[in-house]
Amino acid sequence: MSTFKDAEEVYGYLGRMFEIAVNDPQLVEATQGGDLVVRLTMTDPASTMVIDFPGQKVTCGDAAEGAPSTVELRMSADNGHKFWLGKLNLTLAMAQGKAKMTGSRTKALKLLPLTKPLFAAYQQLLQEAGRQDLLSV
Predict the structure, then answer these.
(1) 73 near 90, Cβ under 8 Å?
(2) What pTM, to 2 d.p., does this model score?
(3) Helix or strand or coil: residue 12?
(4) Residue 105 has what pLDDT?
(5) Residues whose CB falls within 8 Å of the CB of residue 31, separated by 6 or more in sequence, listed in order
(6) Beta strands per DSSP E along the chain
(7) Nearest CA to 75 among 55, 50, 93, 92?
(8) Is the confidence at residue 101, as pLDDT, over 80?
(9) Is 65 a residue whose pLDDT tops 90?
């Protein structure tokens, strides 16, 4: 059974977390003047987001479908959730085939260390939403 009941929940939690990330001062500085735009396609439930780091915006659902990107990342929504909980090593997940990334991989992978301080923000987001059930994986 999937962590999220539908795409709207994915956007409500993971989409909101990416909105926090694109406005994080360290990530803003690291991506300033660059072109890192990630299309995140998830399964279970099917959902799509475009994370535009230089533009500091996240587009979800149908609005994200035609948007250009420099990196394509595919994984299950459960693995996206585990990542933000700090329980999924993305590099290892790619090696194991749990996640697939194409495009400007180097640019995206350089940001991974900067996401670790944001894991607590995801936990807080879930707690504030009354979703303690999502805190344990």
Answers:
(1) no
(2) 0.93
(3) helix
(4) 86
(5) 53, 54, 111
(6) 37-43, 47-52, 57-60, 71-76, 99-103
(7) 93
(8) yes
(9) no
| 45-to-4, 15, 39, 54, 102 alpha-carbon distances in Å | 7, 14, 16, 28, 21
In angstroms, rounded to a whole number, what is the distance separating the alpha carbons of residues 47 and 55?
21
Which strands form 71-76's sheet, in the order they lie side by side? 57-60, 47-52, 37-43, 71-76, 99-103
Residue with tokens 């990630």: 38
Q: What pLDDT band is residue 1 in, cutting at 50, 70 and 90?
A: confident
Identity of the amino acid at 71 = V
Residue 106, classified by CB atoms within 10 Å of its CB into exposed (0-12), middle (13-18) or buried (19+), is exposed
Pair type for strands 47-52 and 37-43 = antiparallel
For residues 31 and 54, the answer to whether their CB atoms sit within 8 Å is yes
- CA-CA distance, 94 to 56, in Å (whole number)? 25
d(CA 39, CA 36): 10
Helix and strand totals (H; E) in the chain: 8, 5
Phi, psi values for residue 109, rounded to 5°: -65, -25
